[in-house]
Amino acid sequence: MIGTGELCDRDGVELTLHHLRPRELGGSHLPIAYLCKSCHKQIHALYSNRELAIRLNTVLLLKVDEALKKYLKWIKKQPVTKAVRIRKSKTK
After folding, report:
1. DSSP labels for 7-41?
2. Residue 14: closest CA among 26, 24, 22, 5
3. What is the pLDDT along the chain (92 residues), one digit of tens a residue?
4. What's the predicted TM-score (pTM) here?
């Protein structure tokens, strides 16, 4: 599906489904967000599923998190056609 990413607000990107509470931690039937592939991969590179379930389980909480905020500021400037490299967290 093509649309606007809920985190990066870029339009015309391929969207993926992100469970705001990971499925393995009971989030199968809970709220979801539509994220671009780059944002979705970056979230899972930075945070464990446990941390996502406990601390970062809404789009707003993800947007204001310091580590992700820097990434979002950068990705918003990137063209949707550009392949983006994802950085793994050193502390995850």
Report:
1. TT--SSEEEEEEESS-GGGT-TTS-EEEEEHHHHH
2. 5
3. 999 999 999 999 999 999 998 878 776 778 899 999 999 999 999 999 999 999 999 999 999 999 899 999 999 999 888 777 676 665 55
4. 0.84
Residue whose structure tokens are 């015309």: 12
CA–CA dist 43, 54 (Å, integer):
14
- From CA 68, how far away is CA 41, in angstroms rounded? 12
What local confidence, expressed as pLDDT, does residue 65 receive? 95
Contacts 24+ apart (CB under 8 A), 72-78: 72/7, 72/8, 72/39, 75/8, 75/10, 75/36, 75/38, 75/39, 75/42, 76/8, 76/9, 76/10, 78/10, 78/38
Contacts 24+ apart (CB under 8 A), 52-55: 52/20, 52/21, 52/22, 53/21, 53/22, 53/25, 53/26, 53/27
